[in-house]
Amino acid sequence: METLTIMNGDIYTPTHFGQGSIVIQDETISEITTDALQPSGQVIDASDCLVIPGLIDGLIHGGGGCDTMTGEVEDIATIARAHARSGVTSLVLGISSGSMAQINSALTAIAHVVDEPVADGSRILGSYVEGKFGSLAKNGAQNAKYITPPNFEEFHAMWAAADGTLKVISVAPENDENFQFIKHLTTHKADAYNNIVIAMGHTNATYQEAMAAIDAGITRATHTYNGMSGMHHRELGAVEAVLSHPNIHAELIVDEHHVHPFWGNHLIEQKGIQAVGLITDCTELAGVPPEVWQTSATYIAEFDAYRLNESAISESDTAFEAGSTEKYVRNGAMWLDVGRPTERLAGATITLMDGVRNVVNWGHSLSDALTMATLTPAENLGTAAAVGSIAVGKMADIVIVDAKLRVKTVILRGKLLKN
């Protein structure tokens, strides 16, 4: 049995435990203590550092220069490695709208890495079909050509391609007649669908429709505020349903571009840290330094933005048909069709550790920010028994950071991640 001991760190479990030590045996945390230890095996001195749980990003679309939609196993592995280096040890990989062939190919590649984890990469908790069953009125960066109402033919094809690893399915409930799709998955998710999480996103639902859909079985809101009806002083929509219903987990993109900190704080204050999960909705540029991707991008002074050329992203990126959109980076976020009437946000470029840092800067305690980036998403995704906090018996996914939340050391499944 291999033993690894982290000593002298200021521990957040994510609540503040204080100065202490953590003993890891093989992949599992065996002890957390404030007592003096005589450690055996490998020892890490975390003096002057914070010891926190590995972060969980519940919705990403890429990282390390690769997109989740390529259908290439090695691209998924690259994404896992890029996020692990930033202290994000668990991921849910988003699937954009596309042809069924594209979607199923991507789901199969993700399933391969779920079943055979990358030794030096984040744990892939599963896939997240985000845009396929959305609303044309709120498609955002999703390719409208392939959006359809929720239906069992396409869902079961995706379920088969994912080999049971499809973790989250997002729907526009107003397009689900009598909520038959939502109700079926809710009734059978435990016995037939591996406890799949049903989300509401890219939706133009009325407040009444959204509230009824949550009562029917929806438990998650896809990137709250973005691609969602509401925020009008006379008419309520899905946003207000998410804010008011106690039985829905609200994702919050924390790059400060998709959601202004004012509204981010309002969501957290309204729902509490047990019901808000921090996400990035990040693109392939997450974990890629600007000086790297800018070398193969074109700066457009008129828009103060960089247009990403083909070589700047994965050559197999099939999220959109060739030539149908242009990707830009402007002010730290990904945009499509800058300068055109179709201009719109298309994803973040940060990793979740950057997002946690942002939320702390909004005025939240580190413990609260970490809770929303670890334990809260783990509970909604049904993985809290294994990950999401530093606790005896749980998987040893642990990150050592300095006071500015800069990653010093990452421990994946009990093993020290080597740079």
- As an assembly, this protein is single chain
Helix content: 25-40%
Principal-axes geometry comes out as globular
| Uncertain residue segments | 311-323
Q: How many strands in all? A: 23
Structural class label: alpha/beta
Main beta-sheet annotation:
8 strands, mixed
How far is the first residue's CA from the last residue's CA? 24 Å
Number of H- or I-type helical stretches: 11
Note the beta-strand portion: 25-35%
Rg, Å, rounded: 21 Å
Instruction: Give average pLDDT, whole number.
Output: 94
Structure description:
Helix content is 26%, strand content 28%. The protein is built from eleven helices and 23 strands. Helix 7 (261-271) links the parallel strand 14 and strand 15 (276-279). Helix 2 (100-115) packs parallel to helix 3 (152-162) and helix 5 crosses helix 6. The chain is globular and about 60 Å long. The two termini are 24 Å apart.
Summarize the model shown.
The protein is of the alpha/beta class and 419 residues long.
Q: How does the SSE layout of this entry go?
A:
Elements (H helix, E strand, L loop, with lengths): L2 E10 L3 E10 L2 E6 L8 E4 L4 E4 L1 E6 L1 E2 L2 E2 L5 H13 L2 E8 L4 H16 L7 E11 L18 H11 L3 E6 L8 H13 L4 E4 L6 H10 L3 E2 L16 H7 L4 E5 L7 H11 L4 E4 L10 H4 L3 E4 L4 E4 L18 E4 L2 E4 L7 E5 L3 H10 L4 H8 L1 H7 L16 E4 L5 E6 L2 E2 L3
Parallel strand pairs: 1-4, 1-5, 6-9, 9-10, 10-11, 11-12, 12-13, 13-14, 14-15
Antiparallel strand pairs: 1-2, 2-3, 5-21, 7-8, 16-17, 17-18, 18-19, 19-20, 21-22, 22-23
Helix pairs in contact: 2-3, 5-6, 9-10
